[in-house]
Structures are given as C-alpha cells and as structure tokens.
UniProtKB/TrEMBL annotation:
It comes from the Bacteria. Residues 302-369 form the Protein FecR C-terminal domain. GO terms for molecular function: sigma factor antagonist activity. The chain crosses the membrane at residues 67-89. Keywords: Membrane, Transmembrane, Transmembrane helix. The keyword Transmembrane applies. Gene3D superfamilies: 2.60.120.1440, 3.55.50.30. Residues 158-255 form the FecR protein domain. The keyword Transmembrane helix applies. PANTHER family: PERIPLASMIC SIGNAL SENSOR AND SIGMA FACTOR ACTIVATOR FECR-RELATED, PROTEIN FECR. It comes from Pedobacter nutrimenti. This is FecR family protein.
Amino acid sequence: MTTEEAKRLISKYNAGNCTDQEKALLENWYMQLDVQHINISPKTIESLREEIKNLPGFNDKSKTIKLWSVIAAVVSVSLIAVGVLLFNYRSEIRPITNQIANDIAPGTNKATLTFANGKIINLNQTKTGIAVDAAKIKYNDGTKIFSNNTDSFSGLATITTPKGGEYHIVLSDGTKVWLNAASTLTFATSLRERGEDKRRVTLSGEAYFEVFKDKRRPFVVKVGHQEILVLGTHFNINAYDPKAVIKTTLQEGVVRVISLKKDGTFRKSNLKPGEQAISSEAATLIKKVNVELELAWKKGKIQFVRADLKSVMNMISRWYDIEVIYQYYPNEAKFTGSISRSKNISEVLSLLETTGEVRFKIEERKVLVMK
C-alpha cells in the first residue's frame, strides 16, 4: 500500500467510514512499518507534536487524538516508524515515575536442561541454542555442554526457559524450535516412542516450530488437551494457559489439530497457511489472522493491535520477569503498538503511557499500574 493510499484510508477510518476489509488492510499496513532503526531527535518529536495539534479532530481541552491521526501526521512528515503509535495519543507525555533508577533490562538467552535421571544443567547465556544429534547434545556452535568430557545422553530431556529467557533447539531429526519465555519442551533423542512410528514432543508455554519433513514419521506436538500433527511445516503454538485456550498459528504447510473433548471423543481440524486454531475443551475456532503479529516475538518485537491492557502486560511480565500489580485498570481501553524486545522496560511502559490511559511505577521487579 502506498503512502497516499494509506492516508486516504486513515481519513476514512477517522470519519468512521472504513469497511472491515479496509480496517484489516490498514492494520496490516501499520504492522509492516519498520519501527526499529529510525532515530528521532527531541526537536523532531516536538515538531511532530505541532503537526498533530493542527490536525482535524484535535481537542485543546482534552489534548486527545486518534491513533490514525497520529499516523497521518507521521506520514505527512515522512517519519513512518515512530514506533509509539497508539490509540489515544496525548501531547503531554508524563514520564514513568523513577524509570531511570529502577529500570529493568530485557530478557536474554536463558534456559535449563533437565535429564531423566534428574540432572539439571544451566545453559550458557552467551550461546543462543543447543543441537541434538542422536544421543549427543552440544551448543549450536559445536562447543560442549558437559564439563566432564561427555556430550551424550539417553531417554527424555526437557529444556525450560524461565520468565525473561528464550532459547533455540535443533532436534535430532533436524526440526528447529524457538522457545519463548516461561516455556518447556520435552523431547527424546530419537523422537520416537517405542512401538510407535511418530516423532513426539511435549510443549507448554510458547514455541515456533520449523518441522523437518519426513512422510514416514509424522511430527506430533502434545500440548494440554490437544495434539498437533504435521509432516513438515512452520507454525507457532501459544499455550500459556492450556486449560483455557491453545492458539496454533500456521505460517507454512498444513497441520491437523486434534483436541480431546470433555466426553472423551476427539475433534479434528485442519489449518491452512494464515489461519489460527483457538482451541478449548468445548470448541475449536478457526480464523484468518495477521501471522506477522502472531510471530512478532520470534522476530524480536513486542507488538499488539487493539489489545486489552492485561494481554499486553502479560507479554511484558513474561519477557521482563516482573510482577504486575493493578492499582487501576482501564476496562474499555485498547492498545496498539510496536517496539523492540531489546529495549529496557521503561521504554515499553513509556509507550503505553503516551495513551494517557495509564501510568506506571517500577518498584524492584514489580510494576504498579496506576491512573
């Protein structure tokens, strides 16, 4: 979509005349903006604020303006990618209380490896992942994990990322898995249970899979009350609350979602690229989604569109390893934004504060949500 087309849709959006299809197109365009690598000086930001004040719909008394009006201003001064574009922008930004003194760094490469015999290894944080080859396991740069000159193991193993951690693993069949924060993956050296010709792993939390194609041995991910059956494909599973819902998003290939219902029978659903299955014990909903948004975490971004505050803060809590305490909650507020996961938490919270809906205070590893 060209800049002129975007500006035309923005005008329709602010006038309330956008169709659902045009809204989806506009949101997809926004999520494609590159918000990571543009340096904007305070002088330029102040200039942008002056541009915003002159836009139709700006209210001097409330100093509130719509998200897409802000985007239009950004487009008009050729600054697509400010990265703090949210629904209710306020020109008077109140900085986070004590954001400098108590700032919190983002998550890092952090995980533990637990073996069937109970042995636990804290994986090196300077490495990005591990690789399994038959009964041997090493870091993905070829260096040894074990200090006793052995790199072999047998049976099941579990890799676990804590809050504030992520890690990558290449399984023995060549399948690649990226683990998000607060997640676990249990796997075997052969990825094959005795007497069953399938490759099986068990997941909790969130992970992105690039499954190595093998028609003779389907790949099965067990998560909560369901299994995802694939031959060779790319997909993401979000199962932080498997008792409630499990989200499976397909980027490439075909997957089958098999859910166990309360009555003991199974419900089977096939996904096509660009679709997401939202599964519970009661039902499975299949819908088209913005795959880039669902996979933003893997690409090093925190992104959200029309999300409630709790959903956003859950993402922040897992990645920055913090506890969120709600002294106030804006029930009707919806948030849209994008920022790098490499930023300190103060920058992420400042982005949310620009809405004027909430303020934050950092106390050690606690974040207080205030009015």
